[in-house]
Amino acid sequence: MGRMSIYITGDIHGSISVGKRFNSKNFPVGKTLTKNDYVIIAGDFGLLWAGDREDRYWLNWLTNKPWTTLFIDGNHENFNLLEAYPVEEWKGGKIHKITPSIIHLMRGQIFELEEKKLFTFGGAASHDKPYRKVDISWWPREMPSFAEYEEGLHNLEQCSWKVDYVITHTCSADALKWLSLNFEKLNHVDKDQMHDYFNEIKGKLEYEKWFFGHFHHNQELPEHQHLLYDDMIKLT
Ligand SMILES: [Fe+2]
User: How remote is the CA of residue 73 from the centroid of ligand 1, in Å?
Assistant: First the structure.
């Protein structure tokens, strides 16, 4: 038996790209993995969306892959469906178990996967809210509650502000500023309380790498921050 492997990728948006991202042509190493290996999605998982046959088909397809899929929530999730699952404890943090091998890592949690510590914090503000419908394609729970922000800080305190990986959907205020200066199409994105919250954490936390998604690019940023879209990166 080999060591555990962890891979990470960015937004899936449900049936739009789950089949392409994880098929054996795009992710050939996938077939060598086992249920003790993890593939993490940094938000906008999107397979709890309409709760329909199409969602079920792809959830089943993904469950039957050789690895265990972990995801944080993005802004494009149906939070009503997601939060209907019972909260469980797993590897030191809170989860929703969607299927036996698809696990939602909740906000503000720390997970220990063998010797690696992960801090997870999903959610983000949608930039296309005017075009979306409440409870059909937009959910207010895309933004964290005060209790979730507090829980995140509390859990970081508990591990003395040292983790291996941070996994978020949106990014720190510094990263957002960098992106707006380097990508013209991102210079309209408004800073909100989540970006400030992550900046505060970034200033205090010792971490090896901070992965986030949401902006649909693959790009390394200063301070070990890394924007992910369709790249599949091996962490360990
Ligand atoms: Fe997003």
Answer: 9
Ligand 1 geometric centre to CA of 176 (Å): 14
Q: In angstroms, what is the span from residue 142 Cα to ligand 1's centroid? A: 9
Distance of CA 199 from the midpoint of ligand 1 (Å): 19
CB burial of 119-148 (b: ≥16 within 10 Å; e: otherwise) equals bbbbbbbbeeeeeeeeeeebbebbbbeeeb
Instruction: Count the Cβ atoms, other than its own, within 10 Å of residue 89.
Output: 9
Under CATH, which architecture does the 6-234 domain have? 4-Layer Sandwich (3.60)
Burial 180-211 (b: 16+ CB within 10 A, else e): beeeeebeebeeeebbebbbebbeebebebbb
**Cβ-contact 45, 103 below 8 angstroms:** no
The pLDDT tens digits of the residues spanning 168-211 come to: 999 999 999 999 999 999 988 999 999 999 999 999 999 999 99
Ligand 1 centre to CA of 140 (Å) is 14
Distance of CA 44 from the midpoint of ligand 1 (Å): 5
Enter the tokens of residue 53: 């046959």
Q: Looking at the DSSP assignment, which residues form a beta bridge with residue 95?
A: 88, 105
Quick one: pLDDT at residue 127?
A: 87
Indicate the domain borders of the chain: 6-234
- How many angstroms does the Cα of residue 172 sit away from the middle of ligand 1? 14
Ligand 1 centroid to residue 216 C-alpha, Å: 8
